[in-house]
Amino acid sequence: MIFHETERLYLRRLEKRDLPRVTELIGDWVIVQWLTHVPYPYSLKDAEEFYEKVAVDYTHNVPGYFVMASKTDNLLMGAVGLHPAYGSKPKTDEIEVGYWLGKKFWGKGFMTEAVKAVVSIAFQRPLIQRMTSTTDPANQASQNILRKNGFDYLGLFPRPTTDIVLRGSDTVTRWELHRTKHEKGLVTCPASM
Which of 49, 59, 101, 193 is the most exposed place for a label (fewest CB within 10 A)? Predict the structure, then answer.
């Protein structure tokens, strides 16, 4: 099922046939080193367990995980996920965005294009007033994606204790985007950036 289309991408549901490709792409240390909740090495069994979790969201018509697939061949390139913001008191008006992209697709603007679309999808949910994201301070590429999509830098914060896998720095950069900024069109980002 395709949830959304951009100029070059389908944003669709994760399918069982994608799992070997997920394992291949996300199993690369260059990718997984930036991901908080992903084990390494990443196995097909890990992908199958993750699939079972996201499949529940799809059955409730509240997609929280969007596979990025090229319109030319519909092959999985990466993904963008939405989940409740982490913290001691989760807020119903806030959602966090995270993402990953296979290395061979870096530097072509695919993730900026996908995040832009998922931000719009998230703000279609009436309760959501604020989107957040965190990055490792060394992950400049991810920070650029957020910046290009209108997210504001909030600063360095201690890494949340909810992080299952602790990698990299013991701090994270935090970013936010408010609904009002998004709706006023203050976010300008060419789709191909």
Answer: 59
Beta-carbon contacts of residue 129 (< 8 Å; ≥ 6 apart): 93, 94, 178, 179
- Specify whether the backbone of 150 is left (phi greater than 0), alpha (psi in -120 to 50) or beta: left
Is the predicted pLDDT of residue 166 greater than 60, yes or no? no
176 closest CA partner among 97, 117, 82 = 97
Amino acid at the residue 1: M
Residue 147, C-beta contacts closer than 8 angstroms, at least 6 positions apart: 153
Pick from 4-8, 82-86, 115-119: least confident: 82-86
What 8-state DSSP symbol labels residue 40? S
CA distance 37 to 58: 20
What's the order of all strands across the beta sheet hosting 94-101? 2-5, 9-12, 65-70, 76-84, 94-101, 130-135, 171-178, 152-158
84-115 pLDDT tens trace? 876 656 678 999 999 999 999 999 999 999 99
